[in-house]
Amino acid sequence: MLAFERVTPRTIPNLARFRKELARVAQQGYAIDDQETDMGARCVAAPILDESGSVTAAISISGPVTRISRDRIQAYALATKKAASAISAQLRHSR
């Protein structure tokens, strides 16, 4: 059985919630760590895809919640997705 160790009160606590979060990430094209690992820290990440469209890496930005505020998450997500897309395109062209 998969164990979910709670690191902070915001850590995803179980498989059902984890699967729900994965579905949301796949739909929106980016992930958020909203104080799930460290209280006071937030992260926005987007996948880097290889030539077959498979995730080969990721790019993220992290910082304190005072800098990556909830009202700025969408802007950071857009910038992170744009950077990931550019890197993905470069990987496809370099092969």
Provide tags for this entry.
alpha+beta, 2 helices, 95 residues, single chain
**What is the arithmetic mean of pLDDT?**
93
What percent of residues are in strands? 15-25%
Alpha-beta content class = alpha+beta
Envelope shape: globular
Number of helices: 2
| Main sheet overview | 3 strands, antiparallel
Element pattern in H and E: HEEEH
Terminal-residue CA separation: 40 Å
| Widest sheet, order of strands | 1-2-3
Question: Using DSSP, what is the number of strands?
Answer: 3
Roughly what percent helix? 25-40%
Radius of gyration: 15 Å
Low-pLDDT parts are none
Briefly characterize the structure.
By secondary structure, the protein is α+β, with helices and mostly antiparallel strands.
Structure overview:
By secondary structure, the protein is an alpha+beta fold. Helices cover 38% and strands 24% of the residues. The protein contains two helices and three strands; from the N terminus they run H-E-E-E-H. The protein has a three-stranded antiparallel β-sheet. The relative contact order is 0.15. The mean pLDDT is 93.
Reconstruct the topology from this structure.
Blueprint: H1 15-28, E1 31-34, E2 41-49, E3 55-64, H2 73-94
